[in-house]
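Usage

Read records sequentially. Each one opens with the input sequence:
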Amino acid sequence: MTTIEIVKSVLEDNLDIAPAEVVEDATFDTLGVDSLDMVELICDLEERCGVEFGEPSGLQTVGQLVAYIDSLR
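and closes with the structure output:
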């Protein structure tokens, strides 16, 4: 499973966001992901991807998040 597929799955499972809406240039604001949702998203992604995020900052789009996760692998 690719990183973008994992992100789509987590967003669908946690926030009922349709996978078709989760594209690389989508911002978390446009997807309706608030700061609390982001904390939960990061926790789930750490578990599913087997990485430690630390404290990422400046992640505004799905593509930035995917690139960040891939850089940790």
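Summary fields computed downstream for this record:
- The mean pLDDT is 95.
- The radius of gyration is 11 Å.
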